[in-house]
Amino acid sequence: VAADLVRRGITLPRRIAAEGGSNGGLLIANMLTRYPEHFGALFCTVPLIDMRRYTKLLAGASWIDEYGDPDKADDWAFLKEISAYHAAAPGQPYPPILIATTKRDDRVHPGHARKMAAKLQALGYPAYFYEASAGGHGYGKDNREQAAFISL
Q1: Which has the least CB within 10 A, 79, 89, 101, 128?
Q2: pTM for this prediction
Q3: Residue 24 is part of a domain; what is its CATH number?
């Protein structure tokens, strides 16, 4: 979609931003590592990112039927392709990204967001990190918390 908007002269990559959370966070992280030239900024919330260790964290083991088992060679061959944590590399034209999570996420462990932000920062990229103390696997438990998170 982003490439088509640019191809048709509707906008420029630097003016395109995208946001996604949870599985959408997995998508956003992959957009960063696979198609960085298409975006001016990305916002990745409560994301699933490290597909090597996802089964070891919180509810991750219950998703093996959906994604595959990273401890099986054939499954890992596929999962490695969608594991943005493992795909992040130096020297890429990554746009700025804000990675946000919550301390109390009971579905996707905040470690996914923490690790990805730390790796991107260590590689010298403009990666920003925010971890809310309230909320769960979402933007907060009430309207005030949701508004604060969304206003990022």
Answers
A1: 89
A2: 0.89
A3: 3.40.50.1820
Residue 141: which pLDDT band, with cuts at 50, 70 and 90?
low
Helix (H, G, I), strand (E, B) or coil at 133: coil
22 among known catalytic residues: yes
Number of domain units in the chain: 1
Q: Which of 38, 86, 137, 151 is catalytic?
A: 137
* pLDDT tens string 117-127: 999 999 999 99
Identify whether 68 is part of a domain: yes
62 is catalytic: no
**Euclidean distance between CA atoms 125 and 25, whole angstroms:** 18
Domain extent at residue 39: 18-150
Q: Is residue 3 part of a domain?
A: no
